[in-house]
Design brief:
411 residues, three-stranded antiparallel sheet, 13% strand, 14 strands, seven-stranded mixed sheet, 14 helices, 2 domains, Aspartate Aminotransferase, domain 2
Length: 411
């Protein structure tokens, strides 16, 4: 007798890292070289002492259940950070909600917004994309529409290519700025276009901004709340922003972030989360409060990443199509070499060879995107790899030199 499982689970694609493990299970990396991992976007800088101290001081909170809404001090710290960072106001009582990392919240938000009683609902997202968007849509019973990207504009999303008939059925739009894996930042004009589409068709915009504090240009990336206020939308209607401390504060194991925006959406999301059992633990809340109230460790963290990109990018630029991104800690690098079956070089074969011969892990770009028949004749990630510069500076530079040697050996 078969198990009575949710049939929507069968619609899920293999998660990129699980798929990559399958694709490399037969490989024994070169044992003469120490391994360097640039595949997973997991920050590896030291956790700030102020966060560790706050965790220890919060041990007495283990004796009480936390509230799903979160402690007032944490919500006020978040609202204060939003004001300092973006120059806009959010009400800590009605427009802010702590969450257990942005990944969990990105998924759960779809279950709040999507209507399972209405067939044909659509979730629109970029391509390439963060796979949680797709999984959240499919398990919410919706269709996924992958908006095409423009390689000539660093894979910025071409929202004009989404048909009006699709927008009419859209209930939720995921954006990611700075983008994963491209590092592209959405300008104000792009936000204006999306807000106008949301007003016309009534869909919710979920802005994934977990890379907002790692940037390399003259000014920090524009945020969605900031764009909304600049465009005369201080109520943030149909807009929520999701972000996290993982990258900003080097605490991926803390699982802490927040959602902010439209008070109506926050109220509905709180109701869902009350039943979902996803309250943030007291230790995490106290540590998060300390993190959001401090900016010095964020500035220092950003400088470490700036050093890595300044040193690594010129080394790789001689053998790959790569440039300093606007933000985030990824290099979205184009490959040179023999053409694959779909035209560009075979990124899976290239990454497998790099691992086997030089013991460096990167993630094939085709695992982060979808080939959609009729709309995307080729996978937009084909022929590219994503490198997460999360290892120490010396390791990232060593990996870059190994990649140069590997690439030259292929020519």
């Amino acid at each position: 007798m078969t198990l009575p499982l949710n049939p929507l689970l069968a619609r899920l694609h293999p998660y990129p890292f699980e798929r990559w493990r399958e694709l490399t299970a037969d490989i024994t990396p070169n044992p003469t070289l120490r391994p360097i991992g640039l595949g997973i976007g997991e920050p590896r800088h030291a956790t700030p002492a102020l966060i560790e101290d706050a965790l220890m001081q919060a041990l007495p909170t283990l004796s009480t259940y936390p509230a799903t809404l979160g402690e007032p001090a944490l919500r006020e710290a978040i609202a204060g950070w939003v004001q300092r960072r973006y120059g806009v106001a959010v009400n800590p009582g009605t427009q802010v909600l702590p969450v257990n990392g942005s990944r969990e919240a990105l998924f759960a938000l779809a279950q709040t917004v999507l209507d399972p009683t209405t067939p044909g609902s659509v979730v629109v997202c970029p391509n390439p994309f963060y796979q949680i968007y797709e999984g959240a849509a499919l398990l919410g019973g919706a269709e996924v529409f992958f908006a095409p990207s423009d390689p000539a504009r660093n894979f910025a999303t071409n929202w004009d290519a989404v048909p009006d008939a699709v927008w009419a059925r859209t209930r939720l739009l995921y954006t990611c700025s700075p983008g994963n894996p491209t590092g592209t930042v959405m300008p104000l004009a792009e936000w204006q276009q999306l807000f106008e589409l949301s007003d016309r068709h009534g869909f919710v915009i979920a802005s994934d901004e977990c890379y907002s504090e790692i940037w390399f240009r003259d000014e920090p990336p524009l945020g969605a709340l900031q764009a909304a206020a600049a465009l005369g939308r201080p109520d943030y209607r149909r807009l929520v922003v999701l972000t996290s401390l993982s990258k900003r504060s080097n605490v991926p194991g803390l699982r802490s972030g927040f959602v902010a925006g439209d008070a109506r959406l926050i109220k509905a999301f709180l109701l869902y989360r009350t039943y979902h059992g996803s309250a943030m633990g007291g230790l995490v809340q106290r540590a998060s409060t300390a993190a959001w109230n401090d900016e010095a460790h964020v500035v220092a963290n950003r400088e470490i990443y700036r050093t890595k990109f300044t040193q690594v990018t010129p080394v790789l630029a001689g053998v790959m199509d790569v440039a300093l991104p606007d933000a985030a800690f990824y290099l979205w690098a184009g490959l040179a070499g023999p053409q694959g079956p779909d035209g560009p070089p075979d990124d899976v074969a290239w990454a497998r060879g790099l691992l086997a011969q030089y013991n460096v892990q990167v993630l094939p770009g085709s695992l982060l995107a979808r080939r959609v028949e009729g709309r995307h004749p080729a996978n937009p990630g084909q022929g590219r790899v994503r490198m997460a510069l999360v290892a120490p500076v010396a390791d990232c530079l060593e990996a870059a030199h190994r990649i140069v040697c590997y690439t030259e050996s292929l020519n």
